[in-house]
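Subject: sequence -> structure tokens, single chain

Hey, anyone have a minute? Need the predicted structure for the following. Not urgent.
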Amino acid sequence: MDLGLQGRTAFVSGSTQGIGYAVASALAAEGASVTLNGRDPARVDDAVSRLRQAHAGAEVSGIAADFARADEVDRLVDALGDTDILVNNVGLFGLAEFAQIGDEEWMRYFEVNVLSGVRLSRHALPGMIERGWGRVVFVSSESGVNVPRDMIHYGTTKAAMMALGNGLAKLTRGTAVTVNTVLGGPTYSEGVAASVAAVAAAQSMSAGAMRDAIIGQNATTLIERFLEPSEIANLVAYLASPRASATNGATLRADGGVLTGIL
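Reply:
Had a minute. Here:
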């Protein structure tokens, strides 16, 4: 299916690996010009090179910036220019006991997971509305609905992303601009795989066995496996396309059935 993205410009935050890279790859495959982002310039350059190799002829560039630093975000925004598609994907995640999470860590999570989307949308959305077309997609998580007891700071920021996306969508009333959110389920990204491998090594298990044991503890998953990053990316690419013109202000699930509610 042609998603109609040929010639569109896209920026994907946090896209040197994992879901972000998969989203960038899906958009590049549809003919969009994609700008990647990460904290480390060398990793950004490597991701740009890999994406160009994967999609011959694709227009791919990169901008390094740490979203925990407002000055670097300001520099990124100045360099970015007009963008047709904004994918707010960058995010921190980690396990921590609630009582052990200090104010500084709470602020760091909000700075990266929430304010990144605020700052990028504040830059991109007015231009989209003025030009008459645009797409903003937030990559949230099922943890924003079913907040884990050992990731309360993470789940809270993911819930805030959904609220932000819903509010921004109301600014697009009567236009061809949309703002939507994707709720991803447990995904076997590079970061998750590394964490699983570390735990497996500590318990003298294979990474595969540990991966299966972890997902096996999830009582509500319907697909009974981790998602692949590309499975999240497929939904994001659709929402970024003209084919999703009737979907606005929505939160859509690519969670493998983990969430048990009807909506």
